[in-house]
Design a protein that fits this description.
Strand content: 5-15%
Number of helices: 21
Shape: globular
Largest sheet: 9 strands, mixed
Radius of gyration: 27 Å
Helix content: 25-40%
Distance between the termini: 57 Å
Number of strands: 22
């Protein structure tokens, strides 16, 4: 990718100017690093997330190996290469953002950047890993707290201190901390553009599937290329969106800046705007500025449009291949258009950070630690057996959607709880899409098929399922994994091959017996509607087996023997399901899922009639 604009090497770094307000934080940082230094770096760094082989990492790392005439430093050494054992942590000053730091990592005049706090360490490592596996090593990570900075340094990830002094916990969407992170992004862009390098700025909750730099180089005259929340395709190939038809908001989770004067002016005005109002969402402010003077096509380049001040040349990245959470996970737009996706951003989801992580796991795009692929109690899975009538017959409406969803899961949770095994969730099928507003079932103009394999957070409250609920009221936790877990290449062979198949049978038939002889070539026969005692007795002999796979969960369990245990289980799983949204033209249009809908005579999937009725079934 050509260096369209080169920075003036005589210009001084402007980090101090941008972050002058937080210089006091470096004193805290200095103390942290001083304490870290006394412990030295003799302890081995934490392991890399593992799905690809270490050979892949080594080959990728060689791409950034310094030339013989260029001495190795902490910023030009191969990514994933940790510092020498026994060395001391560099001083805080070494981690300040400077032109020299960016120059050491940039390639062909471009730098790829993300940022975050310690709560997003696993997202950041996944983000870096995808890029290095693609051969892209011209990257930097901004650390918003010293804990993250130290972890990245120990793992060999090039990072700089943003001076944010931010807490290490997750920042929920819309919270004051969330808005602070947004402002930090704007400050960071303003700090980087004067260095003269093209900047591909990314949120940490996205991953790269294909090297984007050659694609971005196809549009050298664009001052700015941005992703969007567009859900209706405006093009069917890999060209930029037809900006005349884009109705979705411009999304600042993925955007590419060239260090041109119009881009710098936009960045500065954006910074001034978000700093003037703590409650202003950075993305809304960006959209307002872009559309101030929007609509004149760039002569000879109809896929670019003049925007902002009438001089900034803007292009909108195609949502089919620079995917949102909807175009990738719900529509599968790139598949239907036979395109290769470059990126997926985990937007359009309903369970916070936990939901984002789970979606990437479902798509086998998240790099977890090896411990994730094992469980002390083993795993429980089953093959869904959904009747054709529920999946395909009749109209796709609220009634048929709820009938399909309600069929799929409760018994498996009970058996997993009873056997203390981690449940591998089944693929979930939906007839209707979920949004934040009323719609006719699927968004008109989208490529959403019916029925479709829906993300787990469309139905389940993933973040609630991961909460540490009091055992006295909710019983033991039920751990779970994504539906694609057993197909993940990272699953160890010894786990995958330790498998017991279970087939349900009629207790009255001659071949069905509660006494089973172990035979690895034949499934274990389990009577339908087995009691708690029978399940515990039978499977106590198979505690060493890693995966127990049921042929079906329909009528597999006859119920808990202890009423108190069942009450706690019910208290827990009632909270596991969320709501569907939304019926059109209703003040209250959402409908709550109910894990025990079948115990309520005459239950129908209808929205609450009044505000007093507007609450989950368990409250």
């Amino acid at each position: 990718m050509a260096a369209w604009c080169s920075g003036d090497s005589s210009s001084k770094p402007i980090f101090v100017g941008i972050y002058g307000a937080v210089l006091g934080g470096f004193a805290v940082s200095a103390l942290f690093f001083l304490l870290s230094s006394f412990s030295s770096l003799s302890a081995p760094p934490l392991p890399l997330p593992t799905t690809a082989t270490t050979t892949t990492i080594a080959v990728t790392a060689n791409l950034s190996r310094p030339t013989p005439t260029q001495p190795e430093t902490m910023y030009n050494r191969p990514i994933w290469k940790p510092p020498p054992r026994g060395s001391w942590m560099p001083s805080p000053r070494a981690f300040r953002l400077t032109r020299e730091m960016v120059a050491a990592r940039a390639r062909d005049g471009a730098i790829v950047v993300t940022f975050g706090n310690y709560a997003f360490l696993d997202f950041i490592l996944t983000w870096v890993r995808h890029l290095t596996d693609l051969g892209v090593d011209n990257l930097l990570v901004g650390a918003m707290d010293t804990k993250l900075l130290r972890e990245l340094y120990l793992r060999g990830v090039p990072a700089f201190d943003m001076g944010s002094r931010m807490a290490t916990e997750d920042a929920g969407w819309g919270s004051p901390t969330f808005h602070k992170m947004g402002r930090e992004k704007v400050l960071l862009i303003n700090a980087l553009l004067p260095f003269g390098y093209e900047l591909l700025m990314c949120d940490t909750d996205m991953v790269w599937l294909k090297n984007p730099l050659p694609y971005l180089a196809r549009y050298p005259d664009a001052d700015l290329l941005t992703s969007s929340d567009q859900v209706i395709p405006t093009v069917t190939d890999d060209s930029l969106e037809n900006w005349r038809e884009v109705s979705g908001a411009f999304n600042i989770g993925i955007f590419h800046w060239r260090p041109t004067e119009p881009a710098k002016r936009l960045a500065k005005e954006w910074k001034d705007l978000v700093l003037s109002d703590d409650k202003l969402w950075d993305q809304n402010a960006f959209n307002d500025l872009i559309r101030k003077n929007f609509g004149n096509p760039v002569e000879g380049q109809g896929d670019l449009v003049y925007s902002y001040d009438g001089k900034l040349k803007l292009g909108v990245l195609p949502a089919s291949i620079f995917c949102s959470g909807h175009t990738y996970f719900v529509q599968g737009m790139y598949k239907q258009l036979h395109l290769e996706p470059y990126a997926v951003h985990t937007t359009f989801q309903y369970a916070g950070t936990e939901g984002k992580r789970h979606r990437l796991r479902e798509a086998m795009l998240f790099f977890d630690q090896p411990s994730y692929y094992d469980s002390s109690g083993g795993f429980l899975s089953f093959k869904p057996s959904i009747p054709k009538s529920l999946l395909l017959d009749g109209a796709h409406n609220v009634e048929s959607h709820f009938a399909l969803v309600n069929y799929q899961i409760r018994t498996a949770l009970a058996i997993a709880s009873l056997l203390k095994r981690t449940l591998v969730m089944p693929p979930l099928w939906c007839r209707l899409d979920r949004m934040w507003f009323g719609h006719p079932g699927v968004m008109e103009g989208t490529l959403t098929r019916q029925p479709f394999l829906c993300p787990m957070d469309h139905v389940f409250e993933v973040h609630v399922m991961l909460k540490d609920l009091p055992k006295e009221e909710f019983g033991p936790p039920i751990d779970f994994r994504e539906y694609s877990f057993l197909d993940n290449p990272s699953l160890p062979k010894e786990v995958k091959e330790s498998l017991l198949e279970v087939q349900l049978c009629d207790d009255r038939s001659s071949g069905c017996s509660s006494i089973n002889e172990t035979n690895k070539h034949r499934p274990l026969l389990l009577p339908r509607n087995s009691t708690e005692e029978k399940l515990l007795n039978i499977f106590s002999s198979y505690k060493s087996v890693k995966i127990i796979q049921f042929s079906s969960m329909v009528d597999a369990f006859g119920g808990f023997a202890d009423a108190a245990v069942e009450t706690k289980f019910r208290n827990r799983v009632k909270r596991y399901v969320g709501l569907w949204c939304c019926v059109e033209l209703r003040e209250i249009g959402h409908i709550y899922y109910d894990m025990y809908w079948d115990e309520k005579p005459g239950w129908k999937p209808h929205p609450p009639e009044t505000r007093e009725q507007d609450h989950p079934p368990w409250s």
